[in-house]
Amino acid sequence: MKKGKKLYEGKAKIIYATNDKNLVIQYFKDDATAFNNQKKTTIEGKGVLNNRISEHILSNLSQIGIKNHLVKRLNMREQIIKLVEIIPIEFIVRNVATGSITKRLGIEDGTVLKEPLIEYCLKDDKLGDPLISEEHILAFDWALKTEIDKVKKMILRINDFMIGMFRGVGIKLIDFKLEFGRIKIDGKNEVILADEISPDTCRLWDSITEKKLDKDRFRKDLGDLIPAYTEVAKRLGILHEQSNVSAVNVTKLSSVKRKKK
Ligand code: UDP
Asked: Residue 193: CB within 6 Å of ligand 1?
């Protein structure tokens, strides 16, 4: 697999072409942004952890029949993924109310929802990813009704699976963001899960202490983010003491090399 030119650079990832027109390489950066890019920094090792955690979750989802774009992880920071046409909507799934919804609707932080709540936001940084309704999606042709119906079914299965997976390792899945993409499989149009699922895109609280193990550590200046993401990876059984240390050290080494050039 040959890495080609950069096709797209987002806030946390870069997409590169490959010599196969249906596949691209997704590179996880160390950049962290919040509040629509107003708060920015680089957190060494974050990309390595998100690459591993997202690979773990997406390959587990694949095993329960949730089709997704992951083909395989290539190395510490890169994975081969199927090229999809991203549906321009962020699907937010909430089990417990926190973050923007508490401010928007005056809901008490930590309120447990009776049922998972799906919210839709238009993927548009310039507009600040505004909240939209299903009617907006249909009115402006951002997705078809059939696509939304399929996505909603997938979301509820993904949520059930992820709640169980995290509960098993002492973590509460509070909310998360998903993205989906269109792809032709055997000549048939399909909608599959895309992007990433990681502590950058989920809120994860320790089941007992409610310690935040996700990007809120950065958003709210709660202290180091890497130990929290490492904790998530270790609990999921992805990293062991040894490999964790080497993961971050390799990142440090490669950045030292870059600086010396
Ligand atoms: N989220 C995300 N990317 C976004 C917006 C939200 O990954 O551009 C995730 C966020 O990490 C959280 C969930 O979606 O797990 C709900 O976020 P919320 O709407 O509460 O936004 P915030 O409080 O971050 O403004």
From this structure: no
Domain range summary for the chain, segments of one domain joined by +: 3-84+225-260, 85-206
Which residue's CA is minimally distant from atom 10 of ligand 1? 201
- Quote the Cα angle for 206-250-204, to 5°: 15
- Tally the residues of the chain: 261
Q: How does pLDDT run across 26-53, given as a tens digit for each residue?
A: 999 999 999 989 999 999 999 999 999 9
Write down the pLDDT at residue 258.
Answer: 43
Does domain 3-84+225-260 sit in CATH 3.40.50.2000?
no
Q: Measured from the CB, is residue 176 less than 6 Å from ligand 1?
A: yes
Instruction: Give the pTM.
Output: 0.92
Mutate to test the pocket of ligand 1, among 31, 38, 92 (most ligand atoms within 8 A of CB): 92
pLDDT of residue 33: 96
